[in-house]
Amino acid sequence: MTAPTKSHGFTQDAIAAMIAQRQEPDWVAQRRLAAWADYIAMPMPDSRTDEEWRRTSLRELNLEATSPLGPVTAATPVPLAPQEELAASITLVDGVVTASWRAASLPEGVVVTDLRSALTSHPQLVERYFMTQAIHPGDAKFAALHAAFWDNGVVIYVPRGVVVELPIGVVVEAATAGRASLHHTLIILERQAQLRYVEEFRGGVVATAEDQAFSSRALEILLGDAAVLDVTSIQRFGPRMFDFYQTRAIQGKDSNLILHTVELGARLSKGHIEDLLEGSGATSKLNGLYFADGNQHLDRFTLQDHRGASTTSDLLFKGVVTDTARSVYSGYIRVHPGAKQTRAYQQNRNIQLSRKARADSNPSLEISENDILGCTHGATVGKVDEEQLFYLMCRGLSRAFATELIVEGFVTELIDAIPLEAVRVSLRNEINQRIERTTAAEESRLALEQV
Predict the structure, then answer these.
(1) Annotated domain spans of the chain
(2) Strand order in the sheet with 297-306
């Protein structure tokens, strides 16, 4: 492993050094500097005054602990799936492409490349869409930081009417202690294009148990009329990662989006997920799954933003929390004037596996149109159902194994919806292992209380 250099945080010197090293087009440097100015001008989010941050404190975050620059580590991450199950794949380690592959059957005109390469191979595409339509640097403090210091990413473009039969898979590995992970994903589908895309974030190496890792990532989705996209984003960072992410999709007329968000890792993760249904007849399904144990803190905000007529969104987020972990979910459905015949649904369900775990759920609505077909939301937070446990234990199962089965059934529908079998198997295995550890510890605690 390459030894980390001394970290110096995110500074004016760091942005100047990055611009000098990269030798990027002038417009890229100008945008970086403008984003840096936005970042400097914005206050750091304050849990005392910012509603969205009211349940998430940044007291432990130390931006001086990591750097956007420095050496990279040689690593060979495990791919998402066998090549025969993918149309193309890219692996990035500390922002460097270490492997890429493209099937001969991938239709002509489909772009699958890393962001740095796209500045040369497809400059007009990047200049037109990169943080200009979906996510903007001025949206938030960490969006501006990301726009100033983004390291690399992936650009996916599917031309009009093209259908990509197999999924595209991307692995992003943060492998060097002290080096920040700053990945950007840009997906553009033209009219009537179709695609399935899966990305997974891993790593978050630290030199000592007291150190921090840092990630600021973004996912931009632009769907043309009648385009169809199924996208999965999985976060499996290490236990000392502080992860901040922003996802925003803009949907054209009659487009269809399925978005799977999975969060399993990180010490602290704060996400902002927005779906803008701009075109009439647009539909979306937003799935979310999170599992928090130890002292993890996972917080995400979702927005279903209905702007076009006859649009439909359906959100289901499920979480499992245990030990002293905490999850926060804030959901917002907004129906604009003129968004007639809207349908919008929002459900957040949580299971607590220990007495000290906590799950907060805050769904809300803002409806500015009286001609709608229905807008509903709901939230549940509770322990594993004792009657279900009793039923299974009466049939010879231990309390721990019965709990595992119930929780596995709770998360199965969301895992089954992910398009890659290898990813589904991996997620099931990790979640089951964490459930088994948790339930065994809880069973031991109950046994001691009965002594």
Answers:
(1) 12-279, 385-451
(2) 111-114, 152-158, 183-189, 213-223, 241-251, 268-277, 297-306, 326-335, 358-367
